[in-house]
Amino acid sequence: MHILITVLVCFFAGMGAGLGTGFAGMSAAAVISPMLITFLGMDPYLAVGIALSSDVLASAVSAYTYGKNKNLDIRNGLIMMASVLAFTVVGSYIASIVPSATMGSFSVVMTFLLGVKFIVRPVMTTKEAMQSISAKKRAVQSVVCGVIVGFICGFVGAGGGMMMLLILTSVLGYELKTAVGTSVFIMTFTALTGAVSHFAIGGAPDWTVFALCVVFTLLWARIAAVFANKAEPKTLNRATGVVLVVLGAVVLLFKLVG
What we know:
The chain is an all-alpha fold.
């Protein structure tokens, strides 16, 4: 019975995380962690480590799918990633000095609100409009936005994927598919860094839960990414919005239950 419950929890956690990653570049940690903690009673630190590990392959296969469909900005993605990684450390250090208990549900609320935003005000920017911005200006914007995302991610402890999607679409003017593709590309490396750090510090995880979460998240991320790259802009915006709203509401419920 315990094995069956473990498989079911991991399946639904992986499904939610995979859909969020494939559609919106969302971090798996926002979905998997609260489910493992609430339903399997797992140590929070190890739960985050498993969630980040699940994020690595899911983000990688999503990035490959988006890149194959020419919906990925690798150059500026690398620039932003360097800033994100550097200032995540800065944000973490400051958070350790000035703890803030009020920001614990930041990523969950943001997920819900961002979903509403995509439904009400879809991103209809075109690739032609994106190319009108000079390469130098885009690079500078990527550095600045990476600093902001990294600091918030380090300070709050979550929300990197959602912050990147919001900034890429609303500030840098990316069309939605390229924004998600670039976001999952960055998340592949940030998640890998986080997962290695967690296991190096906290020790080995429950390998059964680890394997199940990785496989299910990877499967659903691939399905979502393939659908997203074939969808029309309006359809993708609505599908992304619905996924984010549902995930935000469900994860918030898990937090309240926990």
